[in-house]
Design brief:
384 residues; alpha/beta; Enolase-like, domain 1; TIM Barrel; 2 domains; seven-stranded parallel β-sheet; four-stranded antiparallel β-sheet; 13 helices; binds 2-succinylbenzoate; binds magnesium ion
């Protein structure tokens, strides 16, 4: 592995308009907020990573403001000047700062991209080089699509039909109290056979167990994160009461969390979001735990822009990722995105990993500048 020396790291806070907003149980953002991280090496390579956040700390605790503060003051000074040829060193260099997983992830991802480019490798192949033999990238990932809370069942069915016509073969619907059993029933009455799942984003408590049990009637692939964002224990009390597999999202923030969840039976599937667990090094440990325990795994997202989605796609192409991932085509998120070429849905509800080195997509500097200017205009935006 040819090493890279990190000469500089630039932060690019951006705001990008959505093609379609995603309403969840914790609300909806007016635009995509993220901090793109650019790692410049001694050889002049730029590696890109994405600190994917939201305007409001709804899904995770970090925001576009906190991530810049933590990165500038605490993380970047530990990295600039370092020579890296082993990615497992990177989280160690940042370990003096606790938490702030989204921020650490975006920085680490940019270094992954730079190292892969310096070695003329696809990021997917660099990931595989940290796994035992037999885990080479499949070159594509099986994907599904996530649909926000709609005003009516009719509107929900209409958008599901549109996604099915586009070729998506796994549909995820956001749910919340008051939009759960009736939602599942309303959709199943019209579409009895589609591969369907629901995501509650932590909107329920164990007191809702009777209601959640009613979802067993609707042949759901899984119910994602019904209980609180730290409730591993509570999920272990809910899962035995439900036939439907529980998929854990928010509450699994590390490999240690996953080992605990498996041991106490808190769920049967993992939505692995590299951003939530603090990077791809930790994600690879989680991947190994899932494979060793035959625990189904898929890659989640939070509406990443090009560089973030490209890296997640590379990870989702690994063979231990056994269920459809939340990585949709570019046209579902942004028009245009910040990178080229766009991701296009292929036959069999798949997306191909690009051939190029690193993340395999190219930053469009004019679009990046425009998105940074849009953030500047919104910098003092106060969520309502
Ligand atoms: O819970 O999976 C989630 C988006 C933002 C925050 C949380 C979630 C989501 C999604 C979108 O469901 C998945 C995607 O990026 O397509
Ligand atoms: Mg989720």
């Amino acid at each position: 592995m040819k090493p890279i020396t990190i000469q500089a790291i630039h932060l690019h806070p951006i705001a990008l308009p959505f093609v379609e907003v995603l309403r969840t149980s914790f609300g909806q953002d007016p635009f995509k907020a993220a901090v793109l991280v650019e790692v410049v090496t001694d050889k002049g390579i730029s590696g890109w990573g994405e600190i994917s956040v939201e305007v409001e700390p709804g899904y995770g605790a970090e925001t576009i403001w906190t991530s810049q503060h933590i990165a500038k003051n605490f993380l970047l000074p530990k990295l600039v000047g370092q020579t890296i040829d082993d990615m497992t060193r990177v989280p160690k260099l940042m370990a003096h700062t606790r938490g702030n997983n989204h921020t650490k992830h975006g920085i680490e991802a940019a270094i992954w991209d730079a190292l892969a480019q310096a070695n003329d490798m696809r990021l997917a192949d660099l990931f595989a080089s940290y796994l035992p033999e037999g885990h080479a990238s499949r070159g594509k990932a099986v994907v599904g699509v996530s649909i926000g809370i709609q005003p009516t069942i009719e509107a929900t069915v209409a958008i599901i039909q549109k996604r099915l016509n586009q070729g998506y073969r796994r549909i995820k619907l956001k749910m919340q109290p008051g939009w759960d059993v009736a939602l599942a029933k309303g959709v199943r009455d019209v579409l009895p056979d589609i591969t369907l799942m629901l995501d509650a984003n932590s909107a329920y408590t164990l007191e809702d167990a009777d209601l959640l049990e009613e979802l067993d009637e609707f042949n759901l692939l899984m119910v994602e994160q019904p209980l609180g964002d730290n409730d591993i224990y509570e999920h272990s009390k809910l899962q035995p009461r439900m036939k439907t597999p529980i998929c854990l999202d928010e509450c699994i923030k590390s490999n240690s969390d996953l080992k605990l969840a498996i041991e106490i039976g808190a769920g049967r599937i993992l939505n692995l979001k590299p951003v939530r667990v603090g990077g791809y090094v930790e994600s690879l440990e989680i991947y190994k735990t899932a494979v060793a325990n035959n625990f189904p795994l898929w890659i989640g997202g939070m509406l990443e822009t090009g560089p973030g989605r490209a890296a997640n796609l590379a990870f989702a192409s690994l063979p231990g990722v056994t269920m459809p991932s939340d990585i949709s085509a570019t046209e579902r998120y942004y028009n245009p995105d910040l990178t080229e070429p766009p991701f296009v849905l292929q036959a069999g509800s798949t997306i191909n990993v690009p051939d190029g080195a690193g993340v395999g997509v190219t930053m469009q500097q004019d679009r990046l500048a425009e998105a940074e200017a849009r953030w500047k205009e919104n910098e003092h935006y106060i969520p309502v």
